[in-house]
Structures are given as structure tokens and as C-alpha cells.
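Internal tracking record. Fields below are filled automatically when a chain is submitted to the structure queue. Please do not edit lines marked as system-generated. If the sequence contains nonstandard residues, flag them in the REMARKS field before resubmitting.
Queue: standard
Priority: normal
Entity type: single polypeptide chain
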Amino acid sequence: MLDAMNASPTSQDPPTPVIFDLDGTLVDSEPNYYEAGRRLLAGYGVADFSWEHHTRFIGIGTRETLEILRREFGLDAPVEELLAGKNRVYLELARAHTEVFPEMRALVEHLAAAGHPMAVASGSSRAAIEAVLAGTGLDALLTTVVSAEEVAHGKPAPDVFLEAARRLGADPATCVVLEDAAPGALAAHRAGMRCIAVPYVAGTAEDPAFAHAGLLFRDGQREFTAKAAYAWLGRPVGSS
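SYSTEM-GENERATED OUTPUT FOLLOWS
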């Protein structure tokens, strides 16, 4: 399969820089984030935080999410306290178990073998990103990491993707982003990058933000294959 993948991008072109979102794209961490948020809010007297409520915030940074939830539920605790509490619970859950999507792992391995520069750009804290990558073994291949904590604005602003490109020494226009959420797809577009979209939440494929994606897997991870994504990477910049 590696030989078939290597045949797609033209050999004379430099390897395309690839930037991965983490949560919901590389790994199925959303159940852990939901549980961490549920436990956190329960500790402040919020007993009805549902999975459906959580899905509203997929693709948005943890700090931004907590700022919104703090207002919605009228919490008196400062955001820094909420952030520390959620990160603490999430890290416990993430270290115990985080599932990597198999086709995403295959894509990362093939990209590494072919010499593609790669980075992770995520709305999660740096500690959370590093814990997940280490726990899944992806840290050996994905060594360039950008957290939304390290830039001025989280997604849908383009900051994390632009910083990832800078750290890779890459022109943003040559980069391809893999994203599962509409705010991330919009951030990639604003960064001037091509995007492969793999929606995590069923039914969000029609979100206008995904209209900017060069390659859209409407059924998410059920449809996504490393082979199809790798073949698309060989398309010239500017092609649809």
C-alpha cells in the first residue's frame, strides 16, 4: 500500500507540508473532552450538560469554550480556574485511553516515510496535546506542535495554522490542513491553506465553512481513507 501511495504525488515536487488538527481529526478525544467538561461543570452545580450541548463547541479552543460556558451558566469562577480544572480531568482521561483513527495513523506513517513536513495545530492546551501524542505513540512522527495557548486567537482565526507553517519553514499557500470541524476548516481557509475536511459530527458536512475544503469526506471517518487523502495531496496548488 505504501508503494501505491508514493506513486500519487509527483516525484519532482517537494513534499507537501501537512498540518493536522488533533481532536476529532487524528484522535477520537471528544468523549474524553465531554466527560471532563461534564465533571467540571457538575462540580459547580451544573447537572444537565449533555453530549448535544458539548458538540456545539467541537473545533473551538478550550479557553474559548469555557468563556462561553461560564457566561451561559452564570459561573463565578474565573476562567483560569475552570481551565485548570478541565485540563486536570482531561489529562487523567487522556492518559488512560485515547483512540487514534486507524486511517489517520496510516496517513501519518505514509507521510513520514515520504518526507512530508508535518505539524499538529490544536485548540487544546500544550500539555493535553503532548499527553495524547505520547500516549498514542504519534509523538515520534509529529514533533512540531502548536497550541492555541501559544497564539493570539484560536480557531476560526488562522493563527495556529500560520504559526505551524512558520515553525515548519513553509509557505502557508503550500500547506494542507486536515480538519474535522467547521471552525477549523474556516481557519484553514483564512490562512490561505488547502483543506481536507473529515467532519466529526454527522450532519455538519453542509456547513458553509466546509465549502472551502478542497477534499470533503462527507461521512467523516467512516469514509476517510489514507490512500484517497494521500492521492489528493499530489494535486497542484490552486486545483479544486
